[in-house]
Amino acid sequence: MPEIAWREALNQALSEEMERDVNVFLMGEEVARYNGAYKVSQGLLDKFGSARVVDAPISELGFAGLGVGAAMVGLRPVIEMMTWNFAILAMDQIVNNAAKLRHMAGGQLRCPIVFRGPNGAGGRLSSQHSQSLEANYAIFPGLKILAPSTPADAKGLLKAAIRDDNPSIFLEAELLYGVKGEVPTGEYVLPIGKADLKREGNDATIITWSRMYYFCEQAAQALEKEGIHVDLIDLRTLKPLDEEAILASVRKTNRAVVVEEGWSFCGVGAQIADIIQEKAFDDLDAPVERVTGLDVNRSYAAVLEKATEVSAERIVAAVKKVMYREEGT
Amino acid sequence: MAPQLPKDQLLSMYRKMYLIRRFEERAAQSYQQGKINGFCHLYIGQEAVAVGTTEALRPDDYQLGAYRDHAYPLTRGADPGMVMAELFGRATGYCKGKGGSMHIFDVEHFVLGGYGIVGGQIPLAAGLAFASKYRDDGRVTVCYFGEAAANQGAFHETLNMASKWSLPVIFLCENNRYGMGTAFARVSPLPEVYKRASAYGIRGEPVDGMDVLTVYEAVKDCAAYARSGKGPVLLEANTYRYRGHSMSDAATYRTKAEVETERKGDPIPKLRHYCVETVKIPESEFEKIDAEVKAQVDAAVKFADESPEPSLDELHEDVMVEPGEPDVKPRERVLGIKVDWPVWPGPKDYKVTWDLEPREQAEEADEKAGLKQPAKQPARA
Fold first, then answer.
1. ipTM surpassing 0.90, yes or no?
2. Bridge partners (DSSP) listed for residue A169
3. Chain A residues lying within 8 Å of B347, measured CB to CB
4. A329 pLDDT more than 50
5. What angle do CA B37, B41, B44 make, to 5 degrees?
6. Which residue from A75, A279, A328, B339 has the fewest beta carbons nearer than 10 Å?
7. Does the distance separating the beta carbons of B127 and A49 come in below 8 Å?
8. Mean of all residue pLDDT scores within chain A
9. Percent of chain B whose pLDDT exceeds 70
């Protein structure tokens, strides 16, 4: 299997789906002639022409809504948000229209649209460009939320999201676009709503998604050296959530650590911890631990920024805590 | 003066306007009886706009609007009983009672919804028109919105895109002068909405929204213009709502004298007078229509009132679509009538021929700028 970067995996998914279905088009800022702010859409304008790869003005609300309208009558728009921070301007169209159309219309319409772009920290970008916004969308019925970690998962899930008849929020990460991994060529579609057990062990369960997977993997390797073996669950989809995978693992290991890049307060991890205590309380040997970004706005200064972030060390410490092992013993 | 329309067409327009008027009066009554709740925005006074517009369009042209939306499906031949049932929150409503007064969708007739966030439907209209260009299906989209929505960012963002891409859409501003209780002029330095068209380089004009024939002629012309590829139009229909913003608004922000003056321009008697005096249609024909419409609306209220509430099983329906799940066809579901359901050009059997930004044009611009070809830019760090 060829090893390619995240951005190339997404590019393959887009290109293959546009080839397969004429109803698919890509719209966003800088997607066409500039070949994408992060080069995800490299070469697509040349291949598919200017009606299917569309440079939008800087009007997030406007072109998000344009996509929803086109989806209502059967096109399958992929709307690129240069980052999810900018998509805050488009939230009205995403949550008031895309997520609610079918419901308000009593089932007369569907809205097959994908909103995609980088979420989370970029690195030295201060407060407005560094937010993990999945929890904002996770509260709304009517949306699917995908947050893969590896290039292969990114390809398989983007293709699935484009084919799905529901609106999807597809979360990428600025710091992942260059990350490489083995990616199957050609047709490769993953089921939405299925977590992936990326690593197996009996001592504790780590649950995570998106870029934090790599931090968890690093932590798992360090723990392994100390004889601690974890189940590492990469959720890949946040909604619908693969509760079965979470509960099956927790019932086996009896200990859970939930890791997310975003804020602790009302984070998606809080919901996961709640599901575990509600449905697997008797299986737990320790309270669920959460490792999250700090509940502060992100700073530009390197030392302040670093202190707000999740680290492999903090994940290691959390796993040891649920195992009642003191650091260094 | 435009040529006189055929008698049947005039009578049909009268019938639709009176149907809306009567429907809304009975909706108000039902609201006062506690049968309709929530927000209920009446179209009384504005009938000429929706009726004149629909009359000027192809039946498969898309229409959508804000929350003052009962009239739009009624002009297209929707079942009045099912519209009323939606207001009553009953299972037999167009949207199973899930949308209510503000969200009436009749997809069979290409009425793609009423929307409750001011201006929120405007970008959707550009998307519908984008789809029409993309597939070259010759449709025009009419986007109704109130004048107050022209102060939303969605309005500006959408008109900018629609103009740049020459989308076939008529932005039809129903200027009834008040955004809820605030007179438009109090919050807008340029109170004529149509003048904003110049900012987007598109055609913009006002029309007397209290005269159905004038609206008809104007929309017909705008539709032909948009359909021929010349781009969007901003058409401002100057109209007036005789009732408050919603049923819970006593409208104390305007004088009784103002309302009385405006009532003298009521579009329904106006059309009737024209038909009787100029076209020489006997008064008896109108009396017959009035009686028929009254009976039709009485039946609609009765149908709604006698309809069941939705089953609790419906709670989880229509949130997500499952693979292979069909769309709901309301008249088929409720009345057992086999309907022609819109099928947008087949799944994958067409080619996109639209060149939104022709390469020659882009290259010409590059050459002017001293760039031979798009510069290879590094990924943003």
1. yes
2. A115, A145
3. 21, 23
4. no
5. 130
6. A328
7. no
8. 97
9. 96
